[in-house]
Every structure is written in C-alpha cells, then in structure tokens.
Design goal:
about 35% helix, 12-stranded mixed beta sheet
C-alpha cells in the first residue's frame, strides 16, 4: 500500500505565524486567546502577500496561502514561481473549511443593505472551495482539487481525502489542510444563541467547570507525497498519515451521540485503515472543544475504541491554547501533532487544574509528558475531529523514525 509521507507543514494561528510559534507556544503553556477569542493578532496579510493578492482573497484564503507557503517551502518546493517536483496534473489540493469566506459574505451583505455596491469578487471569495482554488492557482497545482465542508471535521476530512487520492494513484503529492476566518458578529451571535460559546471566554477542555468553546480563526497546510517518490527526490520526511476513518452520528443536528458511539466508529475505522491495534496508540490529540456534551461524548468514544488501553494513553487538547478554529481545527491539530511525535511528547491541555472526574482520562497537564518507549517503531497518535451535523473524522499520524 502507498505510504503517505508528510514533507512540509505550515500554520497561522492565534499563537503566531508559523508552526514554531504554534508548537513552541503550546508546549510552553502560552495561550493565544485574548478577550475571549482566538484571533490571529500577529498576522498582517500584507507582510506576506501583495496588496493585490490580499484584495483578491478572503481572510480565510489569506491565512491558508501563508500556511501553504511555509509548508511548501519546508517540502523543498520553493516559492510560487519555482517548478513543482512532479508534473502539475499529478499534484492535487484538498482544503477543508466549515463556512468559507464568512467575512466577505457579511461585509458584502452589509454593503448591499446600505445601498453600496457589492464587490464583483464577492462570490468567488465567499465560496467554501475558494481557499482550495486559491492555493492551487498560487502554486500551479493541476491535479484533483476540491474542498471538504463538514463543519469542525472539515480539516481532518481534507487530510483523509488526500490520503485516499494518493492511495488511488491519482496523484503523486497533494497540499491538504484547513482554514477558517469566522470572527464576525453573525458567528458570535449564532453560536452564542446555541449556548455553544464559553460565557467566561475561557477554553477549558475536560475541565469540571467547562462552559463552551472559544471561537478562533487559523489555517494549516500539510504537503503529503508518495513515500517512495519523496525519498527518491531526497525530501526530509517529517511523519506519515497512516490511516483515516469517518462516520456519521445520524443522531442530532448539533449534539453528538451521548455515549460517543458515532465518533467511536470513526476511531475504530481509522485504526483498521492504518493496520494497527488500539494498544499501538501512544497519544490522542483530542477534538476537546470544552463543551460539556462534546468532551463527555469524546471520552465515551475513546473508551469504546481504545478499551482498557485508554487508561494508559495520554490525551490533550490544543484548543485550550488557541480556541476552536472550526473547519481549520483538524488540520491545525494534525500539524501540531506531527511536531509532538517528532519530540516524542504529549503537549498539555492548558488550565486543566480541575479535570472532570467523570471523564476518567489520562490528562496531560502543566507540561508536556514524554511518550512511552516504542522499541522498533515510531510513535503513533490519533487526531480526532467531530463536527455539527454528526460528522466524525479521525486521523492516524506516525512519527518519522
């Protein structure tokens, strides 16, 4: 079976621009949440893109383009004007987004209501597949290209889709990932009306007093290639996408199955797809939103999927440090997990001074926890994503060595 090697990663998050800012900030216990939101405050689009490029891209695409530039540079593909390592029709792009160009949508709607002209770029900029088209255009990627739209599972589904394209032989490499820029009043009001947002403005996954998620923005991109071709061209392999699984709760429009059975099917499918056992899992990067329902359901899902092994498997949530970036979350968390596997540590859930005793998980608190020794193999991690609509996705990631 074709192995999907990860050769480049990039990110723009509330902890800063670049993967180092994300990972170093998280592992050092720094939070990017300010005034109850996870905004990418250090991201100035014109520091990275031309003014023309900024005008022709919604913020969700701007974030992705910069994350993509970092990932492709690390993979050795260079800048937008450099040649690709493979024929352009053999390089694809799959990007997830829960909503798409929400800022473009709300701004142009407001303009229309006030009698001002609507931008001729409004439709292409607000489309949920816009970021995929933008990154393909920027780098000349002519292979299979589409967006995944499955709420908060979209980024993880994009990675899973890329893995399937590689295995099917339709491409030799892809840029996969997720992006979201939804810090607008309509999103705040809508999620607030659902009682999904934290009223305290604190992101506290698995905490006994958790009261909802903190809205955030961000983007992440990964370059994945056929392992044999990546080695042939001398690329540095950062890790592997070992497997993926998906499922549908078919239970409720927003609430997960209380016992986690729907999500458990995605986790079990991912393990089977990767050809590993539950006992092979060394770390779980949890969806961990900080809502009472999600954390309880996720704990139940892990109990079903991992069985007794769950009690000795460290679990933590990146959302404690950056908030919930919706459709980008699965990709951002996958990127951070790749770095964690390289360091053989499980980063902490920040602020977890009082874990919910009913969840009964091996939490990582205060500081990174070293992963167990795995003689003869690289460490393995699960990265989970669950979205409104009942969408569940799980990615199995492996270290490089």
């Amino acid at each position: 079976m074709t192995r999907a090697a990860i050769t480049g990663i990039g990110a723009v998050t509330p902890l800063g621009v670049g993967v180092d800012a994300l990972y170093d900030g998280w592992t050092s216990g720094r939070s990017g949440i300010v005034d109850g939101e996870g905004a990418c405050r250090d991201f100035v689009p014109t520091d990275h893109l031309s003014r023309k490029e900024v005008r022709r891209a919604d913020r969700s695409s701007q974030l992705l383009l910069v994350a993509g530039d970092e990932a492709l540079a690390q993979a050795g593909w260079g800048g937008p004007s450099d040649e690709l390592p493979y024929a352009a029709p053999r390089v694809g792009s799959v990007i997830g987004s829960g909503i798409g160009g929400f800022i473009t949508l709300t701004e142009n709607h407001a303009a229309m209501l006030s009698g001002k002209p609507v931008s001729p770029l409004a439709i292409p900029l607000l489309m949920a597949n816009g970021p995929t088209g933008q990154i393909a255009l920027r780098h000349g990627l002519q292979g299979p290209s589409y967006g995944t739209v499955s709420a908060c599972a979209a980024g993880a589904h994009a990675i899973a889709a890329g893995l399937r394209e590689l295995r099917a032989g339709t491409v030799d490499a892809l840029v996969v990932g997720g992006t979201e820029a939804a810090l607008v009043d309509l999103a705040r009001a809508g999620f607030g009306a659902m009682d999904a947002l934290s009223t305290t403005g604190r992101s506290r996954p698995f905490h006994a007093d958790r009261d909802g998620f903190v809205l955030a923005e961000g983007a992440a991109a990964l370059v994945i290639e056929r392992e044999d071709l990546a080695r042939e061209r001398g690329a540095t392999i950062l890790g592997y996408v070992r497997g993926a699984g998906s499922s549908q709760d078919a239970h409720h429009l927003t609430a997960p199955t209380p016992d986690g059975s729907g999500a458990a099917r995605a986790v079990t499918a991912a393990l089977a797809d990767a050809g590993i056992e539950a006992t092979d899992v060394d770390y779980v990067n949890a969806h961990g939103t900080g809502t009472p329902l999600n954390d309880r359901s996720e704990a139940g899902a892990m109990r079903v999927a991992l069985g007794d092994h769950l009690s000795s498997t460290p679990i933590s949530s990146l959302k404690s440090a950056i908030g919930h970036s919706l459709g980008a979350a699965g990709a951002v968390e996958a990127v951070a997990t790749v770095r964690a596997l390289a360091d053989r540590v499980a980063p902490p859930t920040l602020g977890l001074d009082r874990p919910d005793p009913e969840l009964d998980l091996l939490h990582v608190r205060d500081a990174p926890m070293p992963l167990r020794d795995t003689p003869g193999r690289a460490p393995l991690a699960l990265s989970t994503s669950f979205g409104f609509g009942g969408h569940n996705a799980c990615i199995v990631l492996g270290g490089a060595a």
